[in-house]
Amino acid sequence: MAAKGIHFEADGAEPEDQDASQQRELFTRFEVQKLLGKGSYGTVYRVKRLSDGGIYALKEADVKKMSQVERMDAVNEIRLLASVKHPNVIKYHEAFLDGNQLCIVMEYAPNGDLSRFIKKGNELKKAFPEEIIWRYFIQICQGLQSLHSNQIIHRDIKPMNIFVGDHDVVKVGDLGIAKMIKEGCAKTQIGTPHYMPPELWMNRPYSFSSDLWALGCLLYELMTYRVPFEAKSMGELRTKVLSGRYRPITPGKYTNDLIMLMQSLLQLNPARRPELDKILALPIVQKHMNGVPVKKAEKAPSEHNVYSTIKIPSDLRLLQGRLPAAEYEGEKGHGKPDADGVIKAKHAPPAAVGH
């Protein structure tokens, strides 16, 4: 069974409006095939790259319409996506400024996201086979482990952000609100309410274990096609989450091993939630790893493995030279930004329209 979201200086120069007579770089290099999604974060398309015929996902957002914070978030997503190399994390390929549009080219997952399959399974009244749940869960853990080993909290684990590629390979995606923490905890209250842990509802500092709570919610949803904490208002949702009470899984539907693992993730005390290394080392998890592509995350990687903060120039048109290098199979990139966030390119980066 295949189951298938930047503060500018006040005197900063805004990008110029796209001249209708000027052909966008996007259309000279890519063939737009299909709209995949649209929201406050921007628009995502399935595209074909003309130079290699490869199929990719391309997200574009109008930076002129973004607030300063939104611009910072967009660039941060690019930075983190380009920093993590793991088969269970959506792959970064390129980012470029095209007039007013900031474009990110990423790996395309042909089978969509997990929310699609949860919806379909619910409509058909057909439960997810347990072996498929284990297969997906293990791969999500591996992708999250890769993020956590690079000191990155995803902060928005949910079915819509888990993508399914060919051969049931599962990938963590959408790092739009992900955050890198070098030490201590994060404090910003952010995420999707139904998957937010108790510590966020109480406005307390949180860390990597917040992703594990969300993972527990996702695991529950795969088994029941509903979120563990349902409510008609935010106040009611907060009360239910802080109580930690949810409808039990129907006995006999899934094994106690799977149910107990879900329960261990939905611990109110974040210190009691198991770490990813320990989850992946569990005998029951090892038992279900047969046939699952396994790649361990690098241990304690050095800081230079993650791109430094990309400084946004007052003239946005100069941002192009500060974005991470393009990464396509068989093609060399342009190098990494230096301490000032400027790439010393081996090859000139593609010119941004509107220069």
Automatic annotation (TrEMBL):
The keyword Transferase applies. It comes from the Eukaryota. Its EC number is 2.7.11.1. GO terms for molecular function: ATP binding; protein serine/threonine kinase activity. Gene3D superfamilies: Transferase(Phosphotransferase) domain 1 (1.10.510.10). Keywords: ATP-binding, Kinase, Nucleotide-binding, Serine/threonine-protein kinase, Transferase. Residues 1-21, 328-355 are annotated as: Disordered. It catalyses: L-seryl-[protein] + ATP = O-phospho-L-seryl-[protein] + ADP + H(+); L-threonyl-[protein] + ATP = O-phospho-L-threonyl-[protein] + ADP + H(+). Residues 30-285 form the Protein kinase domain. Residues 1-10, 329-343 have a biased composition (Basic and acidic residues). Belongs to the protein kinase superfamily. NEK Ser/Thr protein kinase family. NIMA subfamily. This is non-specific serine/threonine protein kinase. The lineage of its organism: Eukaryota, Viridiplantae, Chlorophyta, core chlorophytes, Trebouxiophyceae.
